[in-house]
């Protein structure tokens, strides 16, 4: 029998159905043991389906789970009850419908959950470095506004992602961010020769605040170093593991 689903919560969202889930509480085995929800992970489809159901029921029982086919873009869509095999290519989704549970999958990238309680509008974004610099969080905020939210009322939380101490990048990577905004140098720390350590969570938080989201927080949890708690693409790569799982972050309106 699987252990209980572990839910990491954000203080800014504490009164809303939400959770940043890890790998604990699922039925998958082997390299992806635990709550693997990645449809493209190579895991058994029946186990993935079970894990997705366990995740949804742990956060908002009876809700309809909506996810997207993530492609590291800055595209945000309004959630609809599409089947899993017809998910739109996007990296963020929003809704104002009660009973819809928005889900974002990650394995080192930053999951971001948004809410405007007054307007009854929520959002979820997958912010890998490409989506983050491309403006996926800005697109999510704009999509929420189109449903009636006000950015001055939106709160946001950045969930578990790869931490700066675990995220080594090369000179070209750092130069791309600095070329976009010279102030981005603050998100890089010197590493070994020709390399830097990138603060993905700090960068995403900075993007949120520069977009006018005054209430934004990060959980400060490192997916790479917590092997028993989270899946990590980079850790699996460094260990030469044949597969890696994906965890899910969820938010809904009850």
Characterise this structure.
By secondary structure, the protein is of the alpha+beta class. It has a single domain, classed as CNF1/YfiH-like putative cysteine hydrolases, CATH 3.60.140. It has helices at 45-59, 129-134, 136-146, 171-180, 200-210, 233-238, and strands at 7-8, 18-21, 64-66, 76-78, 92-95, 100-106, 110-116, 121-127, 155-158, 168-170, 188-190, 195-198, 215-218, 247-252. A six-stranded mixed beta sheet has the order 4-5-8-7-9-13. A hairpin with a 4-residue loop joins strand 7 (110-116) and strand 8. The longest helix is centred in the N-terminal third of the chain and has 15 residues, at 45-59. The protein starts with 6 loop residues before the first strand and ends with a strand. The mean pLDDT is 97.
CATH superfamily: CNF1/YfiH-like putative cysteine hydrolases
How do the helices and strands follow one another from N- to C-terminus? EEHEEEEEEHHEEHEEHEHE
Mean pLDDT reading = 97
Number of helices: 6
> How much β-strand is present in the residues?
15-25%
Name of the CATH architecture: 4-Layer Sandwich
Brief summary:
This protein has 254 residues and is of the alpha+beta class. The chain is built from 6 helices and 14 strands.
Layout of helices and strands:
Blueprint: E1 7-8, E2 18-21, H1 45-59, E3 64-66, E4 76-78, E5 92-95, E6 100-106, E7 110-116, E8 121-127, H2 129-134, H3 136-146, E9 155-158, E10 168-170, H4 171-180, E11 188-190, E12 195-198, H5 200-210, E13 215-218, H6 233-238, E14 247-252
Parallel strand pairs: 3-6, 4-5, 9-13
Antiparallel strand pairs: 1-2, 2-14, 5-8, 6-14, 7-8, 7-9, 10-12, 11-12
